[in-house]
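Final report, section 2: Outcomes. Of the targets proposed, Thiamine pyrophosphate enzyme TPP-binding domain-containing protein is the one most frequently requested by collaborating groups, and we therefore present its record in full.
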Amino acid sequence: SEEGTVKWFNDSKGYGFISRAVSHDIPVVWVVQNNAKLGLVDELQKFSLGNNTVATTFKEVDLAKVAEGLGAVGYRIEKPNELKQLLPKAIASGKPTVIDCLIDPDEVPPLIPFVKGLKDFSHRLDMM
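The predicted structure is given below as tokens.
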């Protein structure tokens, strides 16, 4: 990890942070998992409504171009191995950078095991 560079692995939120980083020359690298879906909302709806989901998917957005529109550097990748090559370049640039990683919408971790894990963890805390 380069000193002074912040890396933020994120889903597709946080545009206000990008413009602030550009305005203040803060070297931040965002790695965005772009699945054209509100993954957590989709999983919550599946959990509560069965497979009926409402307004959780949207047209694919080129987040690298959005980043460029905000004054940051933007890259878009479609294959996982591209990140390994691009991340050091993004860090070395010293500029606010967004790496838009296209991912399969169905590769979002399911909510139910996550919630179960939280419940199991809270039970362990109760035992202490």
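Helices lie at 15-23, 39-49, 63-69, 80-93, 111-127.
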